[in-house]
Amino acid sequence: MQDKLWLPGLLKLKRLIQNDFFGKILSVRGEFGYWVFEGHSIPAQRPSWNYRKEDDGGIIVDMLCHWRYVLDQVFGKVKAVSCFGATHIPERIDEQGKPYQCTADDAAYATFELENGIVAHFNSSWTVRVRRDDLLTLQVDGTKGSAVAGLRECYIQHYGNTPKPVWNPDIEQPINFYEGWAKVPPQETFDNAFKAQWELFLKHVVKDEPFPWTLYEGAKGVQLAEKGLESWSKRCWVNVEEL
């Protein structure tokens, strides 16, 4: 399962890359997550095992698998990772209404070095309140332009539309930084991301059409999650070798 590759926002980013909108891509910034209620007064919207290490919970294991295929197949292969995890909420309430100790990470702050010199940083958290366009946003900055993509929409700012701010904390900010962005218009019809991948797999089985999203690609996602945990444990950069 590599469903995020078929999200409309990601597909729009790929089209921009294919058309050299960004020029040389410099960095990718990913913000993912939302506030998962602890369960004391408002019921949690995620299962309790997500927060128990002994049950293979944790956001590093959950999300770095996804970031691996997004980075590898959209921006460039991951060479190394520096990851720091945290268990910000120590106690939650389970499905039976009983309190339990959280032993797995509920937030991860990871930086990735890609083979083409791109620096990517992803914050993944179940303890963050959303003040952005979507639950997942990706900002891509390049020499010619930038884009911010959510699950469905994508906003772009060309070099020629880039404002020139001057740091002056003594006055109100005169620039409305949202005004210089344009929404990518709908240019095609997007289907459900899971359905899109299933159809490609069925065409591979029936018609022997290419299907590069193999078990090997899934193993690479698990590898990056393990490298992220290793980096957190050792508090250092960890190289991501070819499997």
Structure report:
The structure is a single chain. The protein has a single domain, classed as Dihydrodipicolinate Reductase, domain 2. About 25% of the residues lie in helices and about 25% in strands. The protein has helices at about 10-20, 60-75, 195-205, 215-235; strands at about 25-35, 80-85, 90-95, 100, 105-115, 120-125, 135-140, 145-150, 155-160, 180-185, 240. The strands form two sheets. It has a nine-stranded mixed sheet. A two-stranded antiparallel ribbon has the order 3-4. The two termini are about 20 Å apart.
Total helix count?
Answer: 4
How many strands in all? 11
Biggest sheet: strands, sense, closure? 9 strands, mixed
Query: How much is the average pLDDT?
Result: 97
Q: Would you identify the CATH H-level superfamily?
A: Dihydrodipicolinate Reductase, domain 2
Indicate the radius of gyration in whole angstroms. Answer: 20 Å
Indicate how many domains the architecture comprises: 1
Structural class of the secondary structure composition? alpha+beta
Look up the CATH topology.
Dihydrodipicolinate Reductase, domain 2
Approximately how much beta-strand content do the residues carry? 15-25%
Helix content: 25-40%
What's the architecture, going by CATH? Answer: 2-Layer Sandwich
What sort of overall outline do the alpha carbons produce when their principal axes are compared?
globular
Distance between the termini: 19 Å
